[in-house]
Amino acid sequence: MIASKRNKNALKPLAMFNNLAQMAAQTGIPKNLLLLAQEKGCKFDHHNRYDLKEFNEWYFSEKMSDDEKMDWTRYYKREQALTQELKRKDLERTLVDYNVAGRYITALVHQIFFGEIDRTTQEYPPLLKGRSEPEIEEIVLRQRDLVRKRLLEKLEEWDKLGEVPQVGEET
Questions:
Q1: What angle do helix axes 31-39 and 20-27 make, rounded to 10 degrees?
Q2: 34 touches 24 (CB < 8 A)
Q3: Tens digit of pLDDT for each residue in 44-69?
Q4: How far apart are the C-alpha atoms of 127 and 138, rounded to whole Å?
Q5: Most buried residue, 27, 131, 134, 161, by most Cβ within 10 Å?
C-alpha cells in the first residue's frame, strides 16, 4: 500500500517530442529559440526525440542575451498590429460623421448666410438711401466685417458646445 502511494506521488518526467515543430506547438517555446538552442550546443535531442527537461536546464543555465531569447516573430506581429491600430486611429480622426457635417452646413447656410442676407435686404434700402458712393462702400465694408465676426463667433460657440444645433434651435 505504501509503495503504491510513492508511485502516485513520484515526479513524472517532462515530455518528449517527436520533432521541433511539435515541441514548439505544444510548449509555446518559439521554434527559432529551439533552433538557436541546437546551434548553441544544447543536447536536448536524442535519436530524433526532443527532451523538454534537457532544454529547460540548458535554457535557464545558459547566459544568453535578451535579444537571443526574444521571440522576434511574435514581436514583429505585435508591432504590425500596433502600427495598424495607429493608422486606424489616424483615419478615424480624418473621417467626419455625415450627420454632423450635414447639420453644420445646414446651420451655417440657414442661420448665418441666409439670416445675414435677410437682415441686409431689410436694413440696406433705408440705410443707404441718399448716401454718396464712398459712404455706401464704407457701410458695405463694415457690414462685411460684421458678418465675418458673427460667423466666427457662431463657429467658436459651436466648437465650445461640441456639436452643431439642429436648424431652428437657438444657441
A1: 130
A2: yes
A3: 888 888 888 888 888 877 666 666 66
A4: 12
A5: 27
